[in-house]
Amino acid sequence: MSLEVNGILFPQEPRAGQCLRTFLRELGHFGVKKGCDAGDCGACTVLLDGEPVHSCLIPAFRADGRTVTTIEGLGSDHGAHPMQQAFLDAQGFQCGFCTAGMILTCASLNQAQRTDLGTALKGNICRCTGYRAIEDAILGKTNVEERVEPGAAFGRSLPAPAGPEIVRGQARYTFDTQVDGLLHIKLLRSPHAHARIVAIDKSDALRVPGVHAVLTHEDAPSILISTARHEKDWMDPEDTRILDDVVRFIGQKVAAVVAESEAAAEEACRRIKVDYEILPALIDPEQAMAPGAPIIHPDRTTDNRVADARRNLVAETHGEYGDVAAALATSAVTYEATFHSHRVQHAALETHGGLAWLDDDGVLNVRTSTQVPFLTRRALSDLFELPMDKVRVFCERVGGGFGGKQEMFVEDILALAALRTGRPVRLELTREEQFIATSTRHPMRVNIKAGADADGKLTALQLDVLSNTGAYGNHAGPVMFHALSESIAVYNCPNKRVDGFAVYTNTVPSGAFRGYGLPQTLIAVEAAIDELARQLGISPYDMRRRNIVKPGDPMLSPPPSEFHDVLYGSYGLDQCLDLVERAMQADGSHSDLSPEWLIGDGVALTMIDTVPPAGHFADATIALNNDGGFDLTVGTAEFGNGTSTVHRQIAATTLAATVDRIRLRQSDTAHGGHDTGAYGSAGTFVAGKATHEAAMQLATELKAAAAGAWLCDVASCLLDDEAVVSGVRRMSFAELAKLARERGQPFAAHGNSGGTPRSVGFNVHGFRVAVNKGTGELRILRSVQAADAGIVANPMQCRGQVEGGVAQALGAALYEEMVIDADGRVNNPKFRDYHLPSFADVPRTEVFFAETSDTIGPLGAKSMSESPYNPVAAALGNAIADATGIRFTTPPFKPDRLFPALYDKFRS
């Protein structure tokens, strides 16, 4: 066989049945990514004789005698291909995992295909961007500011530092490396929703050639842990083992096979014989709470941070301000309804996985796709009784996270296998495993009661929430508390009551997901605000203006919190409401729609605390280099959240330099310091503050050194254009570096942030929709979001975060739904049956920013990666209700869900 890849002939023969994707990666073409292995996502796209194909579907032998072009071969030695440059100019990427395949498809489009991008790009999924920036790239639009004067980087639309590597396929994700002597791990998973393992027979599995170990609960530490990673362990229950003798959901890992090849490991998994004692399974959370229900974790107690194992309750909360029942009885108008949210998958295109090995110094190294390398190191150190300095956890670039990688789903098995075999090991979850065995958004039943007086002032708000945490309690309590907090704290109301229950069931675990509980409750709270406004004849915008909190108002939700550090660092909620209302009013008519189409508008708002409570910590160090540039080291991870760009902007602005003079190292525990992790809207607000503090301290050192050399007052020294200046005197950073070498004292500084006090961010979303009363089809005619992010660190990038959050939320509101059958099995564990939104599914969203400056955040900034998701489903539900006069309470709002009620109302 002769295979030509990027103009080079390769004589290697593929293995029997090997697909082109794995063959190309084994040849070192890491730009060819694995996202689904089913031809659904397009991350593995290559050009075969100039035509884009999904290489995971092409047998490698079919490329014999043909030319293959991967992203690495698209450009030339003289520079990037025009489409690669276009993606750089438009910044048509965020995490970048899909970008290589997306560029190859876009580069192959002819003029006819460019007129119908929805069809042309249907085979390429992007989970991050919302597609607008990708369209900009195809249209040749430039969104970046390439040249910015020294010290002026913050607040400008500067490109991501990894951009050139991303578009050329040179950015390295978790598995984009070659390791000698690598062993492969495959996991045997439970076919039962609830069972006790009576016996496991490994003998046949161990006889498979190439198998090195079969690991079961007998080989693993018996310590109880949580897969959730938080700075404070008390936030999550201890109810999980690496490998357990009781399985509590279909898909739970039972055994790990370590072998020379994936094929050998898979064959060994098939040969493991497991004797199960089947136990009663609970799929419905209402039944799980009922008296006399089987107990899923009978041996867990409050010492394990499980509220009441006898009732299958992981966590519960109750509280009241005032007297809600009395207030409802005397209100001019009231509203009560029950809403149900559903299971949604994160669907990050890079699945969970990693590599682990012991180095020559006996250090356990774990290279993984994680948002929390430092917290994972701490967990591994505790689990395996290793000193912290004998564990290193790091990530290169991460292919999407959305909260799903704030968990430890693979690193514990990797560590166990590496320590047991002494060999480097690899574990990469399949797309199906991602669906059946990681985590989802918490499904919730939300009952809302609300009242208002005749003037539209809220008199009562009551939430009753039942959260289905699945088989394990990772994030169960914090998600429930968060869902009940800011959703009603954003409104002034004298009488508030909450009751919350997080319940175990024998289903795939729920976990952290962008928004962290707020999207589930907001759809109910914001519906109630709209329904009260409708009864009173008040506009939805004015109803909100009369009731939202304002600076000086307490942000209250019962029961009282022990954390009192949330402040109005800046306040732009009023501006956001005004911006969305004006944008929606400016829209024209839709005379092209027939009378079958019902048109309606909807709005919803959200408030979010910028950091989790109880501390979120970050360290940063920055040092002056010999060439006058700077080395900046931070712990936070980059997975499309844009922190790599913002950290350089903060440092460059503080040090009067350009961003190209800031060299960034990040997300590696070997670099020292600590970082709680890239979650909870903390990447800019917490880690960015650490970077700002370190840069300010270094600036002080540089000015003091120059003042000492000039024998002048340090107060007369300023940083300007990569130098210290005082009057007519000027000492460049390169000269200061030389001075440091002569003195033997390098210039370096450290900064840290503890995540307190906290600020709040605000988002308002507006939709105009058309609903076909005869078919249930829904069209989005207008989508607008306004955001209060303080001083926007990077407008282009922040706009992309909003668009991406809206697109992901629309997927959940319109299409995405994990279907769990009566036995607890996920029925649609692949993209083809799950319907991730593609280019054609996502409307363009207009994005506006309030003009505020946060007094707490770095250089006036605050968070904005997480919160754009939160108001989307609520605003969409309100728009549908406005159009149809029907309140739909159970997303996703698919045509088959809408049609029955529409038929009943309009069939005459």
Automatic annotation (TrEMBL):
Q: Name one GO molecular function term.
A: oxidoreductase activity
The source's superkingdom equals Bacteria
**Could you tell me which residue ranges the 2Fe-2S ferredoxin-type domain spans?**
1-74
One Pfam family of this chain: Fer2_2
Q: Supply the alphabetized keyword list.
A: Iron, Metal-binding, Oxidoreductase
Query: What family does the Swiss-Prot or TrEMBL record give for this protein?
Result: Belongs to the xanthine dehydrogenase family.
* The protein, known as: Dehydrogenase
